[in-house]
Each structure stands twice: as structure tokens, then as C-alpha cells.
Amino acid sequence: MADDRAKLEFFVEELGLLFEEMGERRMNGRVLGYLMLSADPHVSTAELMQELNASAGSISAATRALSAPGFIRRVSVPGSRGHFYRADDDVWGAFLATEHRYLYKRQRLADEVVAALGAEDDIVRRRMANMRDYFNWLEARHRTLGNEWEEYKRQRDAERGDAG
Q1: Distances (CA, A) of 11 to 8, 14, 25, 34
Q2: Of 25, 27, 114, 115, which has the maximum CB count within 10 A?
Q3: Which CATH number is associated with domain 2-87?
């Protein structure tokens, strides 16, 4: 059992490091890792603080950051005033959707800049048009990836006999 716990702790810490390498807070990855490994229907903020040896503030910041893109969900527990969370069943699908929104926003920004440029701004217009077109192209690829991911999951689940 101790060996299993060490493997779980390793995953939590490694996901924290992965998030840090991506420019995110390490605690965000640690919280996500812990919630992904939890078979419980929900985990309390207090449990996260204890198990991750973290402050209330760092857990609060991490849960807010992870809730916004849909990686985790806040769960209501009748009769309790505490905060409870669970990982989304498809964290990485949510990650892809978050990237898609990011790309769309960048494309819209470039659109606005191109529209505001005068005819004399040829060099700048070309750069901004390339930015807009790149994000448009990349966003279309992300949309395709998202659709392919959903189809892949449907086929995988049908082969396994899973409901979802």
C-alpha cells in the first residue's frame, strides 16, 4: 500500500512540475493531479490543504484557476458550507477547448488591429494579417482535433462497452 501511495504522490508532483514548465503555478498541477486520482465523488478544500501540505490561499487560487477552464468542478454537498471539488472526467478535452478559446481571442485581436490600420501601414498590416491568419488556421485545426477526440472517445467507449 505504501508503494501505491508513493506512485500516486509521484504523479501529483510530476503533474505539478509539468504545469510549472508550461508557465502555470505548480500548485495548479498538484491539485489537478490529486483530484484526478481521487475516486471520491468530491474532495474538500481541507483535504486538499492537508494532503498537499498547502495553505488555504494556494488551494483557493489553484481551484479558481482550474475551475475557469473546466478542468475541475465545484460540487455542492447538502448540509455543508465547505468547498468541494472533483476533476472533470475529460480534463484533457477541456484543455483542448481552453486552447481553442485562447486561439479565437488572439484571432479576434488581430482582426481588430488589421481593421484599424490605414492603407499606408503595409508592413504592419502584413504582419498582423499573418498573425490573424495563423490563429485562424490553428483554431480550425483545434476544432478538428476536438471533433476527432470526441469521435475517438465514442469509438473507444463502444469497443469497451462503456456508457461514456
Answers
A1: 5, 5, 16, 8
A2: 27
A3: 1.10.10.10
Give the span between the Cα atoms of 100 and 119, in whole angstroms.
31
pLDDT band at 1 (very low <50, low <70, confident <90, very high): very low
CA Rg value for the chain: 20
Count other Cβ atoms within 10 Å, centred on residue 137.
12
pLDDT tens track for 135-151: 999 988 988 998 999 99
Q: Is the pLDDT of residue 95 over 50?
A: yes
Strands (E), 8-151: 43-44, 72-75, 84-87
Query: Cα–Cα distance between 15 and 19 in angstroms, integer?
Result: 6
Mean pLDDT of the chain: 91
Domain ranges of the chain: 2-87, 91-160
Tell me if the domain spanning 91-160 has CATH number 1.10.20: no
Model pTM? 0.78
Q: How far apart are the first and last CA of the chain?
A: 30
Helix, strand, or coil here: 83? coil
138: cell is 490553428
- Whether residue 164 contacts residue 157, with contact meaning beta carbons closer than 8 Å, is answered with yes
Q: Give the number of other CB atoms < 10 A from CB of residue 29.
A: 23
